[in-house]
Design goal:
This protein is of the alpha/beta class. It is built from 11 helices and 9 strands.
Length: 369
């Protein structure tokens, strides 16, 4: 089966006459006001392949789901709770930003599936942690305090479960940063529509906290199917990139319509054009899915700049309030279109997971599928 799948992928990439189906859906989720509007009855199709039955692991995107059957998942969740507890006791001034996500987020504390890894993986994880702390740990020279809570392999319903279980132990950041969705598409094989619903359900859960924090939705990061790292262009057919773009475009539109929600597009950081064709930047990835040390560093630096813009806006708004304490902490309505007024390069008008459930390809060998 795997050989057959790989053969189809190679046919896509070589421009052979393969019928690449591009699925769509009619419902507009960008005006969503409540989780009650996330109704499954009108879903066009459940599975990434356009069917409703060939993705048995795709779960209800509106309901929380744990992965308690997995030893590493349970251990990593408990570890995250401890990280949050320790952070709360060691940093009485609080936290500026909490990153919630899957393996790319988990890598920022130096682990994958709760472990430090071996060989090349251990080196990538250790250096990724160091790069993150240089920007998001004041004791290490960072401008802000940030906490990364990720679990490799998580989908949106898994993250929703963690949020509802108060994984972050009542920490109250100024910014929530969400990086989730890759596993919904690639691991559980959910459709673009189901993936969007799952991510927005997470967003709505954080919005319901009504804590005055900004919520940033990170774009799903690019995924390649060939070692060329090609995404789009002549004779290039990357069906995952089409799906990722469809999800990201809907999330960006949602953010523009919801004050207090921002969309961060990592595309310009992690991709490049060669002629008229778009490719993932090879130095930014250790394989076709996972960020390298350089990728982690570039993404974290761009995120730090965006956090700076958000917090500067908050400070400016606080000074305009003339001492009204009921309004001084609520800077979510500063941009009614949901975009950042400072307009850094990465805020476009238009993620990634995770180490998924596949072996990590650090040696540059061929297709991960």
């Amino acid at each position: 089966v795997s050989l057959a799948v790989t053969g189809v992928i190679e046919a896509y990439e070589n421009g052979q006459n393969v019928n690449v189906r591009k699925h769509s859906f009619s419902r507009d989720y960008t005006d969503l006001k409540s989780t009650l509007e996330l109704k499954l009855g009108g879903v066009d199709h459940w599975c990434l392949d356009g069917s409703d039955s060939r993705c048995p692991q795709c779960e209800d995107p509106t309901h929380p789901s744990s992965r308690s059957h997995s030893q590493h998942w349970g251990d990593t969740y408990v570890r995250n709770v401890k990280l949050a507890k320790d952070y709360l006791s060691e940093n009485p001034a609080g936290v500026d930003v909490i990153f919630l996500g899957d393996s790319n987020t988990e890598a920022r504390v130096g682990t994958f599936k709760g472990l430090k890894g071996e060989g090349n993986l251990a080196e990538v994880l250790t250096k990724s942690k160091h790069k993150f702390e240089k920007l998001f740990k004041k004791k290490s020279g960072g401008e802000y305090n940030g906490l990364a809570l990720g679990i490799a392999g998580d989908s949106s319903p898994n993250l929703l479960w963690r949020i509802q279980q108060n994984e972050f132990r009542d920490l109250e950041p100024k910014v929530w940063w969400i990086n989730i969705g890759s596993n919904d598409l690639l691991s559980t094989r959910c459709s673009e529509e189901i993936t969007i619903m799952g991510i927005l359900r997470v967003v709505e859960e954080l919005m319901a906290k009504d804590d005055g924090a900004i919520i940033v939705i990170n774009s799903i990061l690019p995924v390649a199917v060939k070692s060329s790292m090609s995404l789009e262009g002549k004779y290039i057919h990357n069906k995952y990139w089409y799906s990722i773009n469809q999800v990201n475009q809907n999330l960006q539109k949602f953010a523009k319509k919801h004050p207090g929600v921002k969309f961060f597009d990592a595309k310009e950081i992690l991709t490049e054009f060669k002629g008229h064709n778009l490719y993932m930047r090879k130095e930014m990835f250790v394989d076709k899915v996972h960020l390298s040390v350089d990728g982690q560093a570039a993404l974290a630096e761009a995120q730090a700049n965006t956090v700076k813009n958000i917090l500067q806006k908050k400070s400016e708004n606080d000074m305009k309030v003339d001492g009204n304490p009921s309004k001084s902490g609520d800077y979510r309505n500063s941009d009614s279109d949901g975009s950042d007024a400072s307009s850094p390069d990465w805020w476009t008008e238009q993620d990634y997971d995770d180490f998924l459930n596949f072996d990590i390809d650090l040696d540059g060998s061929d297709d991960w599928l």
